From TrEMBL:
PANTHER family: PROTEIN SIRB1 N-TERMINAL DOMAIN-CONTAINING PROTEIN, SI:DKEY-261L7.2. It comes from the Eukaryota. Residues 173-251 form the Protein SirB1 N-terminal domain. This is Protein SirB1 N-terminal domain-containing protein. InterPro entries: SirB1_N. It comes from Gossypium hirsutum (Upland cotton).
């Protein structure tokens, strides 16, 4: 059964309930979703979201006077599809005992919303098989990337705002779905004259009609460009967020039967290009490096957050780990005598701000969000270097016991072949030397009494909110 037949059956069922009241409609449809295995609701739930019907007074029949040819004429215009989360399963147990939430709790900060958002994130990435990780975002089925990105935003929002109300993930998912539904009112037969015209009309709708634009390169560190809910609100974001939004619109069209051919998202690697959709049958070999997979998207989203909020922003070294290692005096700087007084004073000032727990500008970093990005990257099972970077952040927080634990995990996780291949890389040599110095220092600290009780660890994670 193809998507169009599923869609027709779905709306034929809906027409039986149009005359019922609002409440009876929801009861009947939810009951059908749980009892009828042949219904399209069951078919749609093959993804990580549950699809239900919701009456929409805003979508009057007058807005659907020109219904796309691929939609059945009997479809009731007063209903629309929205994603709703099923009850979240308990996050599967992991081998990692992360420190961030517990450290904040020990400081008197409620992390219940952050923990729930983390559970939601884990429930999504648990669906990632090896095949799914390498699947293009435009055809991915098992993981709801929009929901996953919003869980990331919800956790970080809770960490910095300490709000008693969690970020409304479902409300922003509804806004994401409204983008797809809004296109239907601008749909015309000319758009379906060819595949190229159809994809071009979607781009014009998204980038012209709706006004979504890419953030400039100098503003990539701004939170608005890195969190999906902010991009949906301000319509300005990174190429990653725009790619995610574009692919989610295409997924909705495929579900509704509007899209009956394979489409790929072209991800731009420059600082100005916009993500665009193209017919996969007409793809070229040169398009392959521009295809964004599920694993790549999630890694890049989290690494962008990690870089934006890394607490040591004044060092000009590209390696985030070396910046932190330099601040911890774990790196021998051959040019130390030539370092400018201004650079030295700036580094000292930044360190002093961090020790006092002052977070007023993202240019000075945010230890909480840097730690949360590292923890989620570790859960994604990416590069073992993420464990190393997490370890040195814990060291700067004064959590020496946990820092030593994760540094040992890093040494166990890195493969001998990768160590040999890095032997000729000057940056990698400095990183490994810093790892060994940090390891020695942590072992010496371990010999001291009460070493696991940090003196200033809470200063990094204290109750200091920062506005978006």
């Amino acid at each position: 059964m193809d998507a169009r037949e599923i869609f027709c059956r779905f709306y034929n069922i809906c027409t039986l309930y149009v005359s019922l009241t609002h409440s009876l409609c929801f009861v009947a449809i939810n009951k059908a979703a749980t009892m009828s295995p042949s219904s399209s609701l069951t078919a749609a739930s093959s993804s990580s979201s549950l699809w239900i019907l919701k009456p929409s007074p805003a979508f009057k029949s007058s807005r659907f006077q020109s219904i796309p040819p691929s939609l059945p004429p009997s479809s009731p215009p007063s209903f629309r599809l929205l994603r709703r989360a099923a009850s979240l399963p308990h996050a599967s147990a992991t081998d990692f005992d992360f420190a961030l939430h517990d450290a904040l709790e020990s400081s008197g900060i409620d992390t219940s919303h952050a923990r729930e958002a983390r559970k939601g994130f884990i429930s999504q990435i648990n669906e990632l098989s090896n095949v799914e990780r390498e699947t293009s975002i435009s055809i991915n089925r098992r993981v709801d990337l929009g929901r996953t990105a919003l869980y990331i935003a919800a956790e970080d929002d809770s960490l910095i705002s300490h709000s008693s109300v969690p970020l409304p993930v479902d409300a922003f998912l509804e806004r994401l779905d409204d983008l797809s539904l809004g296109y239907c009112s601008h749909y015309n037969s000319l758009s379906r004259s060819s595949r190229e015209n159809f994809l071009e009309s979607i781009e014009k709708y998204l980038y012209v009609k709706k006004g979504f634009r890419r953030s400039s390169a100098k503003n990539l560190a701004e939170p608005r460009a890195l969190y999906l809910h902010s991009v949906l609100t301000h319509r300005s974001g990174s190429a990653l967020m725009l790619s995610l939004i574009h692919s989610e619109i295409l997924k909705m069209f495929r579900l509704w039967g509007l899209l009956d051919f394979d489409v790929e998202i072209f991800f731009p690697h420059d600082h100005y290009g916009l993500p665009r959709a193209y017919d996969k049958q007409k793809s070229k070999e040169s398009d392959q490096p521009h295809i964004m997979t599920v694993q790549m998207l999630l890694e890049k989203v989290l690494r962008n957050l990690k870089a934006a909020f890394w607490p040591f922003q004044h060092d000009h070294v590209d390696s985030l780990f070396l910046r932190a290692a330099h601040a911890a005096n774990c790196v021998d700087d051959p040019n130390g005598s030539q370092e400018s007084a201004y650079h030295f004073a700036s580094a000292k000032a930044a360190q002093h701000r961090l020790e006092r727990g002052v977070w007023t500008s993202v240019r000075f970093g945010d230890m909480r969000r840097a730690l949360s990005a590292c923890e989620r990257l570790i859960l994604l099972k990416t590069d073992p270097k993420e464990i190393r970077d997490y370890s040195i952040l814990l060291y700067h927080c004064g959590l020496y016991e946990q820092s030593l634990k994760y540094l040992r995990l890093y040494q166990d996780a890195k493969s001998p072949s990768s160590s040999q291949s890095r032997s000729t890389n000057s940056v990698s040599i400095l990183e490994e030397e810093a790892v060994q110095k940090l390891f020695v220092r942590l072992n010496l600290i371990a010999m001291e009494e009460d070493w696991c009780q940090p003196i200033y660890g809470r200063n990094f994670l204290g109750n200091n909110s920062e506005p978006w």
